[in-house]
User: Fold this.
Amino acid sequence: MPDYAAAPIQPIVEGVVTFPGGPGTQPFFDGKGVSAITRAPGFLFGAYILTLDVGLPGNAGAVPFAPSGPPPLFAPDPDVRTMVTPISTGSPPASFVQSIGVSYIPSALSGVGAPQIEIAITEAVFTLFDPAGGFQIIVWRGLGGGPVA
Amino acid sequence: MSDYAAAPAQPIVQGLITIVTPQTGLPFPAFSGTGVSSIVRTPPGSPFSGNAAGDYLLMLDEGLPGDVALDLIFGRSFLTVRGSFTNVVHFGTSIDQKSISYVASTAPGVFVASPVPGIGSNVVRVVLTASSTGLATDPVGSDGNGCEIVIWRGNAGPDSYSTNLTGPLFAPVMI
Assistant:
């Protein structure tokens, strides 16, 4: 059988974010690879900062910057892949999520990479909100490869 | 310990789609990762209706690591748009519709809508749309900061078959 596993990726974070006290309350992460979750400063809903574990399996240094040298051809952190999937509630089930944005917050230390991930979730008319059922998240580090245009 | 890895899926593509704006000329899509040999904007014309933005064709590698001969039913993927600091929503994106389809190229520059029997799909079409405008949109500027993509080949076990599972709880009514 051919081996199609030709694009290696390493899972470094997997978990579920919920709001045990309901939307607008403290978010809670249950899984691996994350040491803390907070709301983004100044935002009461829909914007979260996940701090990766210092060591494995989160190893924030495993999410490196793009190769240095101006002008940057690619956005920072070309080697990280994140999947966020809302969990529905109600009947019929619905999440009411309109858009999901994922960003990587770089460390001030050179060579460390991005030790934090920021997630922005909006509902209709692009308003930040907490999905009542929470959301699943998986973060991989992509390995190898390079620019193709 | 139990082995829960019972649904094998092999990653064949992983990368980041970005929009590169040269000092002169038009912005063009670029891909950084593995499994893709080139990326272009979807050209106009049947069966393709290309857009000026947000509509891309990713050519999978001919040999490993991309050689998928990807059958449609085996494709598993996700697309994640990176947020933009300049979006009206803090680190948000205005791209709220994402789709992927498996097409084929029988010759350079020639595309057909469906995978070719015996070859499978060697091209992946990605369309990113902002419902606020109804238009395909590049993940650049205030609309986003690139789009991550991972494609797995599902059903990667030794056998490729499907069957209808029946049992005491789900047995059809016998007449």
